[in-house]
Amino acid sequence: MRKTLCTFGVALVASAALIGMPGCSKKSVQSGGDAQSTQGKADSSKPGVGSYPDTSVQPGGGGLRGLDKNPSEERVGSGTMLAKVDPSSNAGRQMDEIRAEQAASAAAGLRDVFFAYDSWVITEEGRQALSRDAEWIKSNSNALLKVEGHCDERGTSAYNLVLGEKRAKAVRNYLVELGVGANRLSVVSYGKERPSCTEHAESCYQQNRRGHLAVKVGK
Amino acid sequence: MTKVKMISAWFGGVLFLAGAVGILESGAADVFLEVTRPDFQKISLGIAGIQNGGGPEWLGGRIEEVLKKDVKRSLVFDLVDLPSLGITPSNIGNGTGTGSKAVFKQVAEKGVSVLVWGKAVMKEAQKDADVNMEGFVYDSGSDEVVGGKRYAGSPSVVRLMAHRFVDELVFRYTGEPGIARTKIAYVAQQGTARELFVMDYDGYDARQLTADGFLNLMPQWSPDRRFLVFTAYRDRNTQTIDMIELATGKRWTLISLGGLNITPALSPDGNFLAFASSHEGNSELYRLDTRTKTIQRLTVNPSGDLSPSWSPNGRELVFVSDRGGGPQLFLMGSDGTNVRRLTFDGDYNAAPTWSPRGNWIAYVCRTQREYKLCVITPDGQKRMQLTTGPGVDDSPSWSPDGRHLVFSSTVEGKSHIYMIDADGKDLERLTFQGTHNSAPSWSPAS
């Protein structure tokens, strides 16, 4: 009986959501356009959405058979199957591209912008650095740039990805203000996952709270 | 600072909720909670040794050591030291001989509820079936050998045999599957890259899953334990939410909307993926219906919303928003309705994770510029800080039985992975290799 009530409750909530609750500001994002026609189908044709396998739990998958007064022999396999990883050429390719990117950025003499703790406001010093960066970008009209937002190690990984994006966007917006074409600047947040300095000290944290301009190589 | 004192184990979340008495000490920046459960008793259990029936000397001892640690971590049993009770375990065999009767009598007289013993053999010449383990269980309440298990497998699964046996014990006495065979997915530094790894719940048998040479972040398990969802970077420039199949290593992109694509979390039934994306401006929460591929936007405001975690019944989400300035925890229905703020203590509360029993939400709280683990009840009435000391604690993740948390911490310098009881006791370090291990995610029980 209780279960029935629960199911009923869920159904009520679901139908209320379908009707659209008055005063509730939410909007449905349709990347593919037509939701109704694809219901129940596992298509992967929608832009930005890949395929999704069946992940529902199969009953009795636990493999526990209980204690037995006269136990028969159970074979123990390796448990969760794990593929052997292929330290593929992918890692090597990434390393080569990272080195090329770093070399191109160093050759361009682009400067980083540094931020205060928990802040994404560009300081006076940062504005000066970006003015010089903007000159280089404008005079090298073929270059495409990536604006990276970075954080120090304090705080959670997840929130630092948001903070890193705020920093990167602040840098991009200022460069656009200075006349750089927005289409030449892409933005990416690395949060605290690619520190330039790994000591646990403020001197290091300062270097890691940065907006970094990288000259894109390859694609 | 007030001492954290809680029940010795969370045996039965429902009972706990019904019987717990919380005393909230207000006024301080950190509010601690004292809960007593005088009626709760762990089940006393003694291990009378795993005899070596042939094979390398370490075999029986290794199995016994794993058994003991698993029994302790179960928090269902109280592991008693038999020799200190005057019980010197002899070879009990299959528990039918007169010698074994004498041992059982002693065990019952000393108030030990469960006695476990066994035997292990390694036949080195044979392929495939070269380790055999037997384990038996005597229950003093019913005064009988309630049963046993016989396992066979390769030497590489010796630890797994012990894990399996303890999961059977936990199942026998609680009806729950136990956590000894669960896994922890995490991120480890490899050169300048961060790759996904999976290890056993006790830190053993770490295996690398990705090797793309860049960043792979914040893995989360699918309900069936066969897949992980995580944040990755295509060509280093574009953030995506990817999925990987553990058994095959097959990997593909699930979400690539542009901007941030972070903190994926699958609903307990696997029908929805909640995640944060900034493709429409700032970081907002979305919900992908994994069957129809429809994406529904859940939050609308100019601040950052991220880190959704599902309630066990799938009807609610706890998440982080900085709409009030610093990051705080909020709750809402899983369709985006009925948003309300949950945390009011401190100016930084993040990385929430809803316990599988539903009664607590663990998260990272900032106190005196350090980032520590806290737990709060979903009604906001009880709050408690679990960890202290310097450094950053991050990414708490519950064990499927709701009795432990795994998290990363820089308390000893480098970021490593630790386990702690849900009441803040028994901190145990799980990783010792490498320069950086983070973002642990505990698998569902099998």
Can you walk me through this structure?
The complex is a heterodimer of chains A (219) and B (446). In chain A, helix 4 links the parallel strand 4 and strand 5. A 4-stranded mixed beta sheet of chain A has the order 3-6-4-5. The N and C termini of chain A lie far apart (60 Å). Chain A contains 5 helices and 6 strands. Chain A has a domain of 101 residues: OmpA-like domain (60s Ribosomal Protein L30, Chain: A, 2-Layer Sandwich), CATH 3.30.1330.60. Chain A is an alpha+beta fold. In chain B, strands 4-3-5-6-7 form a 5-stranded mixed beta sheet, with helices on one face. Chain B has a 4-stranded antiparallel beta sheet with strand order 10-9-8-31, with no helix packed on it. The relative contact order of chain B is 0.11. Chain B is 12% helix and 41% strand. Chain B is elongated and about 75 Å long. Chain B has 2 domains: 132 residues, 3-Layer(aba) Sandwich (Rossmann fold), CATH 3.40.50; 260 residues, TolB, C-terminal domain (Neuraminidase, 6 Propeller). Chains A and B meet through helix 1, strand 1, strand 2, helix 2 and helix 4 of A and strand 6, strand 7, helix 4, strand 9 and strand 10 of B.
